[in-house]
Automatic annotation (TrEMBL):
This is Sarcoplasmic reticulum histidine-rich calcium-binding-like protein. Keywords: mRNA processing, mRNA splicing, Nucleus, Spliceosome. Pfam families: cwf21. Gene3D superfamilies: 6.10.140.420.
Length: 136
């Protein structure tokens, strides 16, 4: 007997009493996964920013789609090719100017909303320093 395992004596058992381990027995591994609660900044690693080139291409594509629709309506109304080309050029300039102003205005509006919200809370944090509202 070895560590309480095996036969008391190998006599009469037809074996030599040698004990070997079961090589096919796989001990279950204890896989405990430690999870943490979400803190500030966690969970955003998988979020990618949009590619500027793709966004610009999509904006140009939307403008081109509007111009194609305008061209079809002008053809249906019976305009000549020269008139259609000039009206499309004017429309393209107007649409590109409109798109550029709306992009900058939306950025400005977002920053204004953020600043006013912080001022209503009487604190405005910018570049790591904290300023108190002058009225308070």
């Amino acid at each position: 007997m070895y560590n309480g395992i095996g036969l008391q004596t190998p006599r009469g058992s037809g074996t030599n009493g040698y004990i070997q381990t079961n090589k096919f027995f796989v001990k279950p591994k204890n896989h405990k996964v430690e999870t943490k609660e979400f803190e500030a900044g966690q969970g955003t690693a998988g979020v990618k920013k949009a590619n500027k080139e793709i966004l610009e291409h999509d904006r140009k594509r939307q403008i081109q789609l509007k111009l194609v629709l305008l061209e079809e309506t002008l053809i249906d109304q019976g305009y000549t090719d020269d008139e259609i080309a000039s009206k499309l050029a004017d429309a393209r300039k107007a649409l590109e100017a409109e798109e550029s102003t709306t992009e900058s205005s939306t950025k400005i509006e977002k920053s204004i909303k953020h600043i006013t919200k912080r001022l209503q809370q009487n604190t405005y944090t910018d570049y790591g320093s904290e300023f108190r509202c002058q009225k308070c």
